[in-house]
Design goal:
globular, 11 helices, about 15% strand, TIM Barrel, alpha/beta, binds cytidine-5'-monophosphate, 8 strands, about 230 residues
Length: about 230
């Protein structure tokens, strides 16, 4: 199974993003485009970055009625993204519709992964606001299992949940994990973090790394370090 380091392009506009990517002359990293950059620049930013030779994870976290998600996904598939995502809380019909929308005429489609419970949601919020009176870990497992049964390829989760998700859904079910920091780096606003080397041990398939690379004085060296620790 392909494992890789995905760089989160959390930049405000095209110029900042392309100036950053210009530094990568040898290996073109797999990158993540999130809502901020996509909403600022539109679909053309995806096309431009793809044309430069990068794989793209488009992180738009769709969540709507099945028909709307199906049609939206067919648009994203047409942008030739390599990975995209939705909220498992939209239910199995929505997830199946998403796969239909993503599948191209030749039968190929981008990798589709689900967000289970956002890592910003704690046990108290889950119970008091979302009204799910269950342990978060079991809810993450149940949503991951629903995503797997609906035909999705994996989930976004904490590296610390990766082995549990594999236990519930099988080894081939992908875990894409943010919350990664170098052992000697700053944690910032992330709480449950781990190093690239530990994420590898825990069974992550893809690590998503933002600021440890984007805010580094030498982003290429930081990217190479993440690759060395995670892929070696
Ligand atoms: O800068 P940092 O490495 O914390 O960036 C992590 C990236 O992963 C950001 O784009 C963030 O939005 C995203 N993410 C996350 N936690 C999740 C889902 C996505 O940090 N549960």
């Amino acid at each position: 199974m392909a494992k890789d380091v995905i760089v989160a392009l959390d930049f405000k506009d095209k110029k900042t993003t392309l100036d950053f990517l210009d530094r990568f002359v040898e290996k073109k990293p797999f990158v993540k485009i999130g809502m901020e950059l996509f909403y600022a620049e539109g679909p053309s930013i995806v096309k431009e970055i793809k044309a430069r030779g990068h794989k793209v994870f488009l992180d738009l976290k769709l969540h709507d009625i099945p028909n709307t998600v199906k049609k939206a996904m067919s648009r994203l598939s047409g942008l030739d993204v390599d990975m995209c995502n939705l909220h498992a809380a939209g239910g199995s019909e929505m997830m199946k519709a998403a796969i239909e929308g993503l599948t191209r005429a030749d039968g190929s489609r981008p990798i589709l992964i689900a967000v289970t419970i956002l890592t910003s949601i704690g046990q108290e919020t889950l119970e008091d606001e979302i009204l799910i009176k269950k342990d978060i870990k079991s809810v993450v497992g149940a949503y991951a299992s629903l995503a797997a049964k609906s035909g999705l390829d994996g989930v976004v989760c904490s590296p610390l949940e990766a082995s549990y998700v594999k236990q519930v859904c099988g080894d081939g079910f992908l875990t894409v994990t943010p919350g990664v920091r170098f052992a000697d780096g700053e944690v910032g606003d992330q709480v449950r973090v781990t190093t690239p080397a530990r994420a590898k041990e825990l069974g992550s398939d893809y690590i998503v790394v933002g600021r440890p690379i984007t805010a580094s004085d030498d982003p290429v060296a930081a990217y190479n370090r993440a690759c060395k620790e995670f892929l070696a």
